[in-house]
Amino acid sequence: MAIFSEQDKQRIEARVAAAEQKTASEIVVATVPRSDAYRDVRVFFALVFALGSSAGLHLWMWWLDVGELLALQLVLGLLGYFASGQATLLRLLLSRQRASSAVQREAEVRFLEHAVFDTKARNGVLILLSELEHGVTILGDRGIHSRLQGAGWEAHVTTIVSAIRAGKPAEGVAQVIDALALVLAEQDPIQRDDANELPDGVREH
Q1: What is the model's pTM?
Q2: Any idea what the Cα angle at residue 107 is, between residues 147 and 176, rounded to 5°?
Q3: What CATH code would you report for 6-36+95-204?
Q4: Which of 44, 102, 143, 181 has the fewest Cβ atoms within 10 Å of its own Cβ atom?
């Protein structure tokens, strides 16, 4: 299920366009379903699930021979692996550090993929939302990084994460875009020859 509805995307695109009427900076909003496949986490869970479940079942089904027990472990392992691919369970299995690192890496990839770096003044800003992790990363190019990065956009990230958990991600993103517009208008005001260098629409994957 997509993070944003069509109405949400139109609303965000309009906010980006309005923000860029005040600043030379370019704002890009992108979403991904998840930032990693987390296969190692899923395999580990599958092994633990298979061994633990088969041990419990063997106490009840004591007549199973070794071959049957191994077959049972295989089936349980496969069930555990596929079950752990579901977002709700996988989210519980991930450590905060692992999820945060994955979202950060994904943001760096999308920063390059969407050419957020490719502006004349190197003043692009990427807001990436990763649905599975409820993760958010904001990256600024070097033209504004030293002036705005500070504590790492933490307050803006927290705003969006809280909105995602409340089931209102578009509201959080819109609020952050408005807040960024005020700061960017002061730090990187719009120029007479300004051009819209990057599309305003939400990038989905």
Answers
A1: 0.88
A2: 55
A3: 3.10.310.50
A4: 44
Domains of the chain by residue range: 6-36+95-204, 39-93
Tokens of 143: 């033209």
Tokens standing for residue 20: 């860029």
Distance CA 33, CA 27 (A): 20
The token duo for 17 is 């366009």
Backbone angles phi, psi at 34, to 5 degrees: -160, 155
Query: Which runs of E-coded beta strand occur in 37-178?
Result: 124-130, 135-140
Structural tokens at position 136: 């958010």
135-140 vs 124-130, strand pairing mode: antiparallel
Alpha-carbon gap, residue 70 to 50, rounded angstroms: 10
Confidence of residue 64 (pLDDT cuts 50, 70, 90): low
